[in-house]
From TrEMBL, chain A:
<dbReference type="Pfam" id="PF00111">
    <property type="entry name" value="Fer2"/>
</dbReference>
<dbReference type="InterPro" id="IPR001041">
    <property type="entry name" value="2Fe-2S_ferredoxin-type"/>
</dbReference>
<keyword id="KW-0479">Metal-binding</keyword>
<keyword id="KW-0560">Oxidoreductase</keyword>
<dbReference type="InterPro" id="IPR002888">
    <property type="entry name" value="2Fe-2S-bd"/>
</dbReference>
<keyword id="KW-0408">Iron</keyword>
<feature type="domain" description="2Fe-2S ferredoxin-type">
    <location>
        <begin position="2"/>
        <end position="78"/>
    </location>
</feature>
<dbReference type="InterPro" id="IPR036010">
    <property type="entry name" value="2Fe-2S_ferredoxin-like_sf"/>
</dbReference>
<dbReference type="InterPro" id="IPR051452">
    <property type="entry name" value="Diverse_Oxidoreductases"/>
</dbReference>
From TrEMBL, chain B:
<dbReference type="InterPro" id="IPR016169">
    <property type="entry name" value="FAD-bd_PCMH_sub2"/>
</dbReference>
<dbReference type="InterPro" id="IPR005107">
    <property type="entry name" value="CO_DH_flav_C"/>
</dbReference>
<keyword id="KW-0285">Flavoprotein</keyword>
<dbReference type="InterPro" id="IPR016166">
    <property type="entry name" value="FAD-bd_PCMH"/>
</dbReference>
<keyword id="KW-0274">FAD</keyword>
<dbReference type="InterPro" id="IPR036318">
    <property type="entry name" value="FAD-bd_PCMH-like_sf"/>
</dbReference>
<dbReference type="Pfam" id="PF00941">
    <property type="entry name" value="FAD_binding_5"/>
</dbReference>
<feature type="domain" description="FAD-binding PCMH-type">
    <location>
        <begin position="1"/>
        <end position="169"/>
    </location>
</feature>
<protein>
    <submittedName>
        <fullName>Xanthine dehydrogenase family protein subunit M</fullName>
    </submittedName>
</protein>
Length: 167, 263
């Protein structure tokens, strides 16, 4: 069986996998990092999005062996060791950008990639288009879009803290 | 998904040797193959991962052509300074394939080798009269795409790069299904060295050239020139997403938009 060695959230892991093992299966079933979800399992919903070497990918459509040697970040790897949330997580909380929460890990991971790829800022339209690969069936997206806009301001250094949502 | 042997060759020569096995399948980004494996539409005994082959990577200008390595991801093409400067319509096409996560994995070589009727790149390859450089030969765009999911590639033949002549003008427009975002009909128009080529994707089982529009644009490069041309609906795809007649109508609308985008 192929062996893979990869860094997940800063920790190096080595595991035996089958050729057909998906990255999301390795993360959830072997490493027990169950924050990465499997929604559709057909590359459409984006609940399984993680970062490989800083870029968002669908972990249900990536073979674990193909991630060999790479640096993977999952939703569990975002908050600081003392529990301080990543600005994107903080913004999702502040703007009530989730209801059932199932899509949230993938939304947050996609949103961070989106903000990093637009260092000059993002329009609402760019945020909506950037979320094309993530489906949410509860929120209607409005609060997700607001949260990402607020997080972008902090991630780009324009504000020190997430702007408060209107009461 | 059934299990398979996994190989990761470091050279085209080694990959081709592994692909001599008729039950072996090549993988690059995997954005089509992995879903197909899950559905057991494909059942290879060996999967050959091309991602470590340096010869198949990189985007460069060679004289009056842009040469794009087969392993270039859609995001690489969309962000390439060379492509944006020389063929902005191609960079823009790449920026609107699938979604961000697909663009971060899917490759140009994989897309054209698969030749899905709804794929975007085949229209650019045909309209720009690109040459497909393989592990065995050079294949013209007109010869490469042969039918639904069918190309001129032999089972152990790999696309190494695609060479696109730099056009004077080029534009692409597509109508996406509102739910799946797959192309219902797309039109790529290009004028290269005085020759006009118009390629239609998404509307039929395989990309095709629209000769009547090529002649009209050759005489008068304007949206009005193609606006009165009606695409024959015979042989176009008709399914739950749209009838053949609807797709035929879209071909004219997309052609007008593509010419307008090309300027």
């Amino acid at each position: 069986m192929p062996q893979v060695t990869l860094t997940v959230n800063g920790q190096t892991h080595t595991a035996e996998v089958e050729g057909r093992t998906l990255l999301v299966e390795l993360l959830r079933e072997t490493l027990r990092l169950t924050g990465t979800h499997v929604g559709c399992d057909t590359s459409q919903c984006g609940a399984c999005v993680v970062h490989i070497d800083g870029e968002s990918v669908k972990a249900c459509t990536t073979l674990a062996v193909m991630a060999n040697g790479s640096n993977v970040t999952t939703i569990e790897g975002l908050a600081a060791a003392d529990g301080t949330l990543h600005p994107m997580q903080e913004a999702f909380r502040e703007y009530h950008a989730l209801q059932c929460g199932f899509c949230t890990p993938g939304m947050v991971m996609s949103a961070i990639d989106l903000v990093k790829k637009h260092p000059d800022g993002l329009t609402e339209q760019q945020i909506r288009e950037g979320l094309e690969g993530n489906l949410c069936r509860c929120t209607g997206y409005h609060n997700i879009v607001k949260a990402i806009a607020a997080a972008a301001e902090v991630m780009h250094g324009k504000r020190a803290e997430i702007a408060r949502a209107a009461e | 998904m059934y299990d398979f042997q996994y190989h990761k060759p470091a050279s085209v020569a080694d990959a081709v040797k592994l692909l001599a096995d008729p039950d072996a399948k090549a993988i690059s980004g995997g954005q089509t193959l992995i879903p197909a494996l899950k559905h057991r539409l494909n059942r290879p005994t060996a999967v050959v991962d091309l991602s470590g082959i340096a010869e198949m990577k990189g985007i460069r200008r060679e004289g009056n052509a842009i040469v794009i390595g087969a392993l270039s991801r859609h995001d690489d093409v969309a962000g390439s300074a060379e492509v944006k400067a020389a063929i902005p319509a191609l960079a823009d096409m790449a920026a609107h394939i699938g979604d961000t996560q697909v663009r971060n994995r899917g490759t140009m070589g994989g897309s054209i080798s698969n030749n899905d009727p709804a794929a975007d790149y085949p229209a650019a390859v045909v309209a720009l009269n690109a040459t497909v450089i393989t592990s065995k030969r050079r294949i013209t765009a007109d010869e490469f795409f042969q039918g639904m999911f069918t190309t001129a590639l032999e089972p152990d033949e790999l696309v190494i790069a695609i060479s696109f002549p730099v056009p004077e003008k080029a534009g692409y427009a597509k109508m996406r299904n509102p739910a799946s975002r797959y192309v219902m009909a797309g039109v790529f128009v290009a004028k290269t060295g005085g020759e006009v080529r118009v390629a239609v994707n998404g509307a039929a089982p395989c990309v095709f050239r629209q000769g009547e529009m090529e002649a009209a644009l050759g005489a008068n490069w304007s949206a009005e020139a193609v606006g009165g041309i009606k695409q024959d609906a015979t042989d176009l795809n008709g399914d739950i997403h749209g009838s053949a007649e609807y797709r035929a109508h879209l071909v004219t609308v997309m052609a007008k938009r593509a010419v307008a985008a090309a300027g």
